[in-house]
Hints:
The protein is built from 12 helices and 7 strands. The protein is 44% helix and 13% strand.
Amino acid sequence: SEAGARGVKPRILVLANQKGGVGKTTTAINLGTALAAIGEKVLIIDLDPQGNASTGLGIDRKSRQVSTYHVLAGEASLPESITETVVPGLWLAPSTLDLLGVELEIANERDRAHRLRAAIQGLAADQVKEPFTYVLIDCPPSLNLLTINALTAADAVLVPLQCEFFALEGLSQLLTTVEQVRSALNPDLTIHGVVLTMFDPRNNLSGQVVADVREFMGDKVYETMIPRNVRVSEAPSHGKPVLLYDIKCTGSQAYLRLASEVIQRERALRAA
Ligand code: ADP
Ligand code: MG
């Protein structure tokens, strides 16, 4: 199989949106879990100093001694930072608050925007036996050097967008940044898709936002929308993806559908 093939490059998807609270981390954890459940081998890289992806996957301080801070600072390799999670097939490169300082530490380095890209390239060489097939990068809520590192390392951007009034405004700013990264740092970067999160069918505004985003972004918008679901918001405090917490809830089912859509798009891209 492709997953078992030697030297296969993982697909590197970055979850980006400079707004906080739109579902980046929730989508990283649960899309990652759903992909692993389908048989992919997945690595989540936590690039947010808040470390919500690490906490949400139940990774305690003791397992964060080598973190993405050390990787970006050049003090450790990416494989050295990786820890297993409660989900079979899902691994994590955790983050800690140290990551807040790395931007200043590397600000004057020529390769400052390429640190993560180089680290992921080193990963491929290390993973000859059973390589990761997907790498998901969870970004902080800002278009800072951490997010630029993620966009420079990625094949494609997956944009979680909350169904609320100012959603489109933030989206155009992000698209401008993606365009800038493409022309200066990573010419192969594409938009994988926009995933609408926290959708509430009883809210008329939600419906209007969905219509506007679909008109603006066309078929870049995934058919799957993630509903607002209390089980999704409860799961992180148990240190579990919602798929392990309550597989039957609407949130879990939506993330499983999103994973199969992501895989379908990947197949279509490869066939093209
Ligand atoms: P970001 O990483 O973009 O800042 P999060 O993924 O942390 O956003 O989500 C923000 C908050 O919204 C969190 O408390 C999370 O649990 C909650 N949340 C995310 N998605 C859903 C959902 N589908 N239903 C209910 N709550 C959600
Ligand atoms: Mg987050």
